[in-house]
Amino acid sequence: MRLGTLIGFLAIIIALYILWRIKQVLLLAFAAVVFATVINQLVKVLQKKLKLNRKVAVAISVTGVLIFVVGFIALVIPPFIVQFQELVTLVPIGLEQLSSWNEWLHNLLPNELIEDVRGLGTLTQNLQAWANNLVGNFFDLFTSTLGIVLNSLLVIVVTIMLLANPTPYRQIFLLAFPAFYRQRVQKILNDCEKNLSGWAIGILFNMAVIAILSGIGLWALGVRLPLANSLLAGILTFIPNLGPVLSVVPPTAMALLDAPWKAAAVVILYIAIQQVESNILTPIIMKRQVSLLPAITLLSQVAFAVFFGILGLFLALPITVVAQVWLKEIVVKDILDRWQPSNQKQNNQNRNLKVTKNVLHN
């Protein structure tokens, strides 16, 4: 192995190690890029419709998003927490009644599972002991909370910086590629922005519609805790395939506390909502969404959650959306689609040369 090759190999290993060590910072930076990309669509709309200066449009967009988030937390989260605590207590009772309702269901839901789920109800009973432990571990709690707050502020600040003037950051990124390939990378970045924005708008729209429809349906059926269950259904929509299945368990278990027919009605309601989402909502917004295979989305979420924790789980789908665009454009179109065996390449060159000679002769 030549010295230059060895040095290059070692440089790649060191670079990968450094990237792994700062993976948390990179994920936070990518989160800022995602938020900036999505909010930038609102900025463009304000610039186009209201003829506003970009800085004014950015200020209005960021302020509006922050007001919406703070309002959502203030109005929805407190009652959601109260209802969720009651939800944790009622679900084990409903599952126990479900298992005793039918022998086949009893085999499907063994006693061990019910005992494990019932253990969630003891969380409220151990609240005092948990509070005492918090006092003893105050420094760890303070450090964790401070870290979350600082990371959130970092993402917000970087998002605003990217929104205020995104051109210099894109130009710096383009400098990492050879001059002849920068125009191609510019197009790929535009495709990433389009797909990422479409995915974000689509998934937020789906989550909102499913939460609203679930809340209305559960309220009409008289199921307990409609707010907590509907919000849970909307949030779990972020997890394709598995999320809708998980979201139907709590309301079904609580409906069983009232009557078996009500539980069946809840299952039918959720199936109907998912059919509306799959056959009506998704085709409408698919024009703006990037198509992700269900197995790939699920595996990406599991993999990123294992390697990067909760932040990796949150960013798994947008990372997959961006990675899919880069793989399709660079690996597939620019490399594999143009890959030809040497003999075939020579034959093509000879054929082109023969055609050129015939044209010149005629």
From TrEMBL:
The biological processes this protein is annotated with in GO are: transmembrane transport
> GO cellular-component terms in the record?
membrane
User: What keywords tag this UniProt record?
Assistant: Membrane, Transmembrane, Transmembrane helix
Tell me the compartments it is located in. Answer: Membrane
Topology in the lipid bilayer = Multi-pass membrane protein
Q: Which InterPro entries match?
A: AI-2E-like (IPR002549)
The residue ranges crossing the membrane are 5-20, 26-46, 58-81, 141-164, 196-221, 227-249, 261-282, 302-327
- Where is it mainly found? membrane
For this chain, the family text in UniProt reads:
Belongs to the autoinducer-2 exporter (AI-2E) (TC 2.A.86) family.
- Protein name, please? Permease
Biological classification of the source: Bacteria, Bacillati, Cyanobacteriota, Cyanophyceae, Pleurocapsales
